[in-house]
Structure formats: C-alpha cells, structure tokens
Write a structure and sequence with these properties.
The chain has seven helices and seven strands. It is of the alpha/beta class. The protein has one domain (2-189): Rossmann fold (3-Layer(aba) Sandwich). It has a seven-stranded mixed beta sheet with strand order 2-3-1-4-5-7-6, sandwiched between helices. α4 runs parallel beside α5. It is globular, with a radius of gyration of 15 Å.
Length: 190
C-alpha cells in the first residue's frame, strides 16, 4: 500500500507524517505493524529529521530547513517518483507538496491511496478530483485546525473524516486521537 498525504500548503502534512511515523514505528517495535517506509517528496527542506531537530532546538531546525530547501525541479520529482514506484514495503507513506500540478501528478501516480488534509475544507474538492484522476482511493479527509484544542472524529467509514488540532512544527503529535485513528485505518487496510 502506497499512501499519499496530500492537500493545500500549510495544512500540516509534514507534521501528520511525523506523527504517523512515530505511532507506526512504535507498533512495529512491538511486532504489531509492518515496517513503514516514509518518503518526503516535496523540496520544502522538511525531511523526516525536521521534527526531532525542532523539538530539540527550533532555531537549529529552521537553519537546516533553509539550507535544505530547494526548487521543485523535474530532476527532484523524477527521483521521488521512482522511489514511490519502486517501493516494495507493505506500507509506504508519501508526503507531497501542496500544489495540484504535473510534478505531484508524476509522484502520486504510483500511489494506491490518499489522505487529504486541509486547513480549509473548501479546498478539498479539488484534491478529491485530482486523486480521482489518478485512481487513488481516498481513505481519509482531515481538517487541520491549527488553533483547535481537540481532535474530532466525524466518521470512520467509508472514509475517515474529522479534524486534527494543533499540527505545529516541532510538536509531538503522535498522541493525537486522529493520528492514532489514521494509523489504525492504514494498518487495517494492509
């Protein structure tokens, strides 16, 4: 299963990726989940190292991010698309950029499923259409509520729907109910 975390920019995709990574790795260590492979497929400079560094020193993380940030070139895109295409892990999670464009289309075409996360639910329809064009099964639609104080579960079937609060860089979100519910859904689908 190859799952894309997609949606508009500044919606918390990278924070969600990190929370999922922590939850699923912890379950993997207990023998309760397969090894998850996480791919950062956007050149925003926020690799999987960012969250851990930010928890230790946010200024250091910002400096590294500025150094690693690059242009979304076709060369970068083709390499990430090959990573997705060639992944043979039972669970691959791909964090893509926040634009509906040909570069994300190239990367996402090799995925099987999608999680749409958006800070504005009015922007979800375009992402649903994009995922539909790529024949991706949308398994979750999450509203990112930066200033909220709690997660809200609206429904689990046929699509996980709800909101997730406070996806802030450098914060541990692995204990959030929606992060754990999404991990549960992903593992159930494998």
């Amino acid at each position: 299963m190859k799952v894309v975390l997609c949606g508009p920019p500044q919606s918390g995709k990278s924070c969600l990726r990190e929370g999922l990574k922590q939850v699923i790795h912890a379950l993997n260590r207990k023998g309760q989940a397969p090894y998850p492979y996480f791919i950062t497929a956007c050149p925003d400079g926020e690799g999987s190292w960012f969250a851990e560094t930010a928890r230790r020193d946010i200024n250091e993380a910002k400096r590294y991010k500025a150094n690693y940030k690059s242009d979304f070139t076709w060369e970068f895109t083709k390499v990430r698309a090959e990573w997705v295409r060639n992944s043979t892990e039972p669970l691959t999670v791909v964090d893509v950029g926040g634009k509906i464009d040909d570069k994300n289309r190239l990367i996402m075409q090799y995925a099987t499923h999608a999680v749409i996360i958006s800070r504005d639910l009015n922007l979800v329809a375009d992402w649903l259409d994009f995922c539909g064009e790529l024949n991706l099964k949308v398994i979750a639609i999450l509203e990112s509520d930066l200033h909220g104080t709690e997660d809200k579960l609206e429904s689990e079937f046929p699509i996980l729907r709800g909101s997730i609060h406070g996806l802030k860089r450098g914060e541990d979100v692995s204990n959030r109910p929606m992060v754990n519910k999404l991990a549960e859904v992903l593992l159930r689908l494998i």
